[in-house]
Design a protein that fits this description.
Blueprint: E1 15-18, H1 24-34, E2 38-43, E3 57-58, E4 61-62, H2 63-66, E5 72-76, H3 82-92, E6 97-100, H4 106-109, H5 114-120, E7 125-130, H6 145-151, H7 172-195, E8 200-204, H8 205-211, H9 216-223, E9 240-245, E10 248-253, H10 257-266, H11 270-274, H12 281-286, H13 288-299, H14 304-313, E11 318-320, H15 324-329, H16 331-335, E12 339-342, E13 345-348
Parallel strand pairs: 1-2, 1-6, 2-5, 6-7, 7-8
Antiparallel strand pairs: 3-4, 9-10, 10-11, 12-13
Pfam families: CoA_transf_3
Keywords: Transferase
EC number: 2.8.3.19
């Protein structure tokens, strides 16, 4: 991200009221805030529960909260009380976007649902992040990342073939829901330039989890076979998996015949490329285990990082398997500006790079503030 600049960013002048907590909503609004939106995070009197999701902590605030709440102003508000509801309406008078993840029906009960707010604020874009939406067989029920992973098939295809279904090791459903919410807001802002009207954006963890089922869903649609776990091996491509080396695992992602020929050349194994069993991807899939055995033998004396570099420079997708600290310390991570540091604050930078209006770090995550948004 670019150095701190006042009033910079593609969304400068866009006012966002953020009532969301935990991850999906806050991740969405941090994307908007990084790119210049004026985001006011409104928390209940006890604060966003993730403030306590530690250790680790910075002061009395958990790293979990710090990771998705930069570039926002903060205040607390009890929306269950008439005074809190009235103040929210006052704040919405000049707002462009409202983001919230209350259980469907909660804001409606307080007279703050879209039908009511849109009459008072016809230009307001109201984005709701929820588990399942307001209606349907599961409508109104609470949703959680890991439960969505289990329910929507993600866990069923994640893990070793002979092991248990496994949760993806990061909250991928929450985060892709936040991304989709941000995309929806930008779409609605663009449409509003034509119609002059806001609209309701219904973004659910359930829908977003199902949207991640590529290529497993199309494989099922067109084969009728239920996808199974295959560890790190790809269901449609070979070799596309981790393999052992002398220094640790390497991931090979060989997507076409040219890359396979280059792999054989770098490994000084011309017989591999000439073997009819491996001539085309379908052949390599059919003979996956034999290919894995041959590659494992060829890799046994290799250094994963050095080999991955040689392969990449030869046009073969490959990577040594790095730990989080190694990834964050990588020279290319620094080059891309993907680690931010300001005093005690450290964070992952914005991956969205714009040439004229880059993302900026303007504000550190807010402390738990009283009702005055200027504090």
């Amino acid at each position: 991200m670019a150095p701190t600049l006042p009033n910079a960013g593609a969304l400068a002048g866009c006012k966002v009221i953020d009532l969301s907590r935990v991850l999906g909503g806050p991740y969405c609004t941090q994307i908007l805030a990084d790119h210049g939106a004026d985001v006011l995070k409104i928390e209940p009197p006890g604060g966003d529960e993730t403030r306590g999701w530690g250790p680790p902590f910075l002061g009395d605030t958990a790293s979990y909260f710090i990771g998705v709440n930069r570039n926002k102003e903060g205040m607390t508000l009890d929306l269950s009380q008439p005074a809190g509801q009235e103040l929210l309406r006052h704040l919405l008078a000049d707002a462009d976007v409202l983001v919230e993840n209350f259980k469907p029906g909660t804001l409606e009960k307080w007279g703050l649902g879209f039908d009511t707010l849109s009459q008072a604020f016809p230009k307001l874009i109201h984005c709701r992040v929820s588990g399942f939406g307001a209606d349907g067989p599961l409508g109104g029920l609470p949703g959680y990342d890991a439960c969505a992973q289990a329910m929507c098939g993600l866990m069923s295809v994640n893990g070793e073939a002979d092991g248990e279904a496994t949760r993806v090791g990061l909250p991928v459903v929450d985060m892709v829901t936040g991304l989709n919410a941000a995309v929806a807001i930008l779409l609605a802002l663009n449409e509003r330039t034509r119609s002059g009207l806001g609209q309701f954006l219904d973004i659910t963890l359930y829908d977003c989890a199902l949207s991640l089922l590529h290529p497993h869903a199309p494989n099922y649609f067109y084969s009728g076979k239920v996808p199974k776990r295959s560890g790190n091996a790809h269901p449609n491509i070979a070799p596309y998996e981790t393999l052992p080396t002398a220094s640790g695992p390497i991931f090979l992602a060989v997507g076409n015949n040219r890359q396979f020929a280059q792999l054989a050349q770098v490994l000084e194994a011309p017989a591999l490329a000439a073997d009819a069993r491996y001539a085309h991807n379908a052949d390599r899939l059919q003979n996956r285990q034999a290919l894995r055995d041959e590659l494992s033998a060829l890799l046994a004396g290799q250094n994963a990082a050095e080999l991955a570099d040689r392969l990449l420079r030869a046009g073969v997708p490959a990577a040594a398997v790095q730990t989080v600290d190694q990834a964050l310390a990588h020279p290319h991570t620094k080059h891309r500006g993907m680690v931010l540091q300001h005093g005690d604050y450290q964070g992952v930078g914005s991956p969205i790079k714009l040439s004229r209006t880059p993302a900026t770090l303007r504000k550190l995550p807010p402390a738990l503030a009283p009702t005055n948004p200027n504090n």
